Amino acid sequence: MVLLALIEKQPLESVFMRNLLIGIDSGTQSTKVLVVDARQGKVLGQAARACDLIAGLPAGAKEQHPHAWREAAAQAIRSVLGAVPTEGAPAVTLPAVQGPPPAR
Fold it and tell me: pLDDT of 21-44, one tens digit each?
């Protein structure tokens, strides 16, 4: 493969590495995770884990423990990475984005 890459004048990293991105969406009902091949734009796997609400709060109050978010994210990440073939991907990039997108 290296010789073929040199003949075709391709960068060597295109032979050995894939860039995989993880997207995490934590909402009030669940945390959803997906893995995307950054070069192809293809979703390779996805998983979701539910987050329970704190019981016994006054009527209309809805709250969750932050550790429940963390645990749901960790479980979903483990699940999706276990299902995605990662050969050729030396690392996974986790970009951090918080809150809604900026208004235009």
Answer: 888 888 878 899 998 888 888 899
Nearest to 76 by CA among 101, 50, 44: 50
Least Cα distance to 86 among 29, 30, 37 occurs for 37
- For the chain, domains (ranges, CATH) are 13-52+63-93 (3.30.420.40)
Question: Which segments of the chain have a pLDDT < 50?
Answer: 1-6, 12, 15
pTM beyond 0.70? no
Count of beta carbons in the 10 Å neighbourhood of residue 31: 23
* DSSP β-ladder status, 92-93 and 30-37: unpaired
